[in-house]
Write a structure and sequence with these properties.
alpha+beta; 2 domains; eight-stranded antiparallel β-sheet
Length: 228
Amino acid sequence: MTDTLQAIARSLSNDVQTLSTVSHNVANMHTPGYRAVRAIPEFQPDAASAERRFATAIDQRDGALAQTGGELDIALRGEGFLVVERNGQMLLTRAGSLRIDNEGRLATVAGDLAMGYAGPLQMPAGKARFGRDGQVFVGDAPVGQLQIVAVGDASRLRAVGNGAYAYDGPLAEWKGSVVQGAVEHANVDAAEETVRLMELTRHAESVQRAIGIYDKAMDTGINQIGGN
């Protein structure tokens, strides 16, 4: 394959990857706490290649709040995630619609256990209250503190379903706040995704024209060679 064809193939591959992120974002626009995925250009270190390649990263901007008044509904402000446990695996989530499971533990709607710093949070009977720093009270009695962390490398977040993410990178200090009685919408901007889709369409059309020009040039060259 010639350098020209390789460049065209890489460009098309980048467009397909970016289109995949746009499609995924649009499909999850109404998923509470969903973090939009972005395609981030990476410039290769070797001078022989000026082509851009793309990695994906999670957009950590806050989504809009929906006030529910629910006692166990919480939303995070600032870059950070609740730590939850699913089948023995520690995961991260922004989905803050919580409930009490059959064993009296605080859990997400998906059934993941909300973790405190001493394990799952056991909730006695009574009215729950959440402090801005993640402290959990039932009545006036403290029952623990939500474990909330920030991530040091968002590119290492991997979606595992039901609004949760696996993460294998360094952690950072969380500096946000907890809002009780609200849930966070997905941080997907419909207008922004529409613009990205239009840009992709225009770029794909440019690549298509480049393929046509290259094909015509090759056909002309072959015919000239054949005529000699």
